[in-house]
Design brief:
Layout lengths: L5 H10 L4 H13 L3 H24 L12 H10 L7 H18 L15 H13 L3 H21 L4 H4 L5 H15 L4 H14 L16 H20 L8 H14 L34
Helix pairs in contact: 1-2, 2-7, 3-5, 3-7, 4-5, 5-6, 5-11, 6-7, 6-9, 6-11, 7-9, 9-10, 9-11, 10-11, 10-12
C-alpha cells in the first residue's frame, strides 16, 4: 500500500464514485489475494460471533470470577424495558449493548476484538443496534464493518490501537472512531462526512488513560465501552448534520499517537495509576448476588 491515510482512501472513493467500504474491500482483496466474495463471507462470520456474544451478555447476567462484573448489561436492558430511560429506550439499549460484549469477554466468552478485547463492545453495539432499529439488511451492515476495519487499520499504522502503547484513547477512542466513520456510511453519508466523524470521535476521547483495576479488562473498561458507543453516535450525528472538523482525521490520529507516547507509564495499562491505584474493596461478590445488581 503506497499511502496509509484516510485522506488517500477518501480521495479514491470520491474520484471513483464508490463508498469507502468498496475501496477498503478492493484493497484487502488485492493484498490478500482473496476475492471480495470470500472476504464478505469471512466478515459475515465475524459479525455472527459479535451477535452471539451480544445476545449472551443481554440474555443472562454475566459474573466474572473477580467479582467486578455482576450483570450490568442485563440490568441496563431491564431498566430500558421498564420505560424509565431518561432519553429513550433505544439510547439505554445502546449502552447495554456496548457493555454486554466486554462483559462476556471478562467472563471468558468468545468475542471479536474490535480493535481490541478491551474495546470489543463499541463497534457491535453501534452498528448492530442501529441496523436493528433501522431494519437494515446485512447487505448494508457488512460493508460498514469493512469501513470500520479500514479506519482501524489506518489508526494502527499511523498511531496505535494498544492501551499499553497509547492509553485507553488508543482502544476505546479507536473503536469509537471506527464505529463513527462506519455509521456515517451506513446512514448514507459521504466519505468526507466519515472523515469528520472519525475526527470528532477521536478528539473527544483524546488523552484517555488506561488504568485497569487489578490489571483486569473489567473496570473501568466495560463501562468505557458504553461511553465509546455513545460518543460514536454523537460524532456520526454531527457529521451527518453537516458539522465539520477543523482538523482531518489523519491529523487527529497522528496527534493521538503523539499524546499516547507522552503519557506516563502508569497511565498505559500498567495498573499502577488512575483508578487502578485506588484501594479496592476487601469484600467483592464472588457468587452471583440474588438481586443481580451491578453495584461496582
Amino acid at each position: 500500500m503506497t499511502d496509509i491515510s484516510l485522506t488517500y482512501f477518501i480521495k479514491r472513493a470520491t474520484n471513483e464514485s464508490k463508498p469507502l467500504s468498496q475501496i477498503f474491500m478492493e484493497e484487502e482483496s488485492r493484498e490478500t489475494g482473496q476475492s471480495i466474495t470470500v472476504l464478505k463471507k469471512r466478515m459475515a462470520d465475524r459479525i455472527q460471533i459479535m451477535r452471539e456474544s451480544l445476545e449472551k451478555g443481554l440474555a443472562t447476567p454475566q459474573h466474572s470470577r473477580s467479582g467486578y462484573i455482576t450483570g450490568g448489561a442485563f440490568q441496563l436492558l431491564q431498566y430500558s424495558e421498564q420505560g424509565r430511560s431518561l432519553l429513550s429506550a433505544n439510547f439505554t439499549k445502546l449502552l447495554a449493548y456496548a457493555m454486554a460484549v466486554p462483559e462476556v469477554n471478562a467472563c471468558m466468552g468468545r468475542i471479536v476484538a474490535a480493535p481490541t478485547a478491551g474495546s470489543c463492545g463499541v463497534l457491535p453495539a453501534v452498528l448492530l443496534s442501529i441496523a436493528r432499529k433501522q431494519k437494515m439488511p446485512d447487505a448494508v451492515l457488512i460493508p460498514a464493518f469493512f469501513t470500520a476495519g479500514g479506519i482501524g487499520m489506518i489508526i494502527e499504522k499511523k498511531a496505535t490501537i494498544s492501551g499499553a502503547q497509547g492509553g485507553c484513547q488508543a482502544e476505546i477512542g479507536s473503536a469509537s472512531a471506527m464505529a463513527a466513520g462506519a455509521l456515517v456510511e451506513m446512514a448514507g453519508g459521504t466519505p468526507e462526512q466519515s472523515d469528520h466523524a472519525v475526527a470528532f470521535a477521536l478528539k473527544n476521547l483524546m488523552g484517555l488513560i488506561c488504568d485497569p483495576v487489578g490489571g483486569l479488562v473489567e473496570i473501568p473498561c466495560v463501562k468505557r465501552n458504553a461511553l465509546g458507543a455513545m460518543n460514536a453516535v454523537a460524532a456520526a450525528e454531527m457529521a451527518l448534520a453537516g458539522l465539520t472538523s477543523l482538523f482531518t482525521a489523519d491529523q487527529v490520529i497522528e496527534t493521538m499517537g503523539k499524546v499516547g507516547k507522552r503519557l506516563p507509564e502508569e497511565f498505559r495499562e500498567t495498573a499502577q495509576g488512575g483508578l487502578a491505584s485506588l484501594p479496592r474493596p476487601v469484600k467483592l461478590h464472588r457468587e452471583p448476588p440474588s438481586s443481580g445488581r451491578d453495584s461496582i
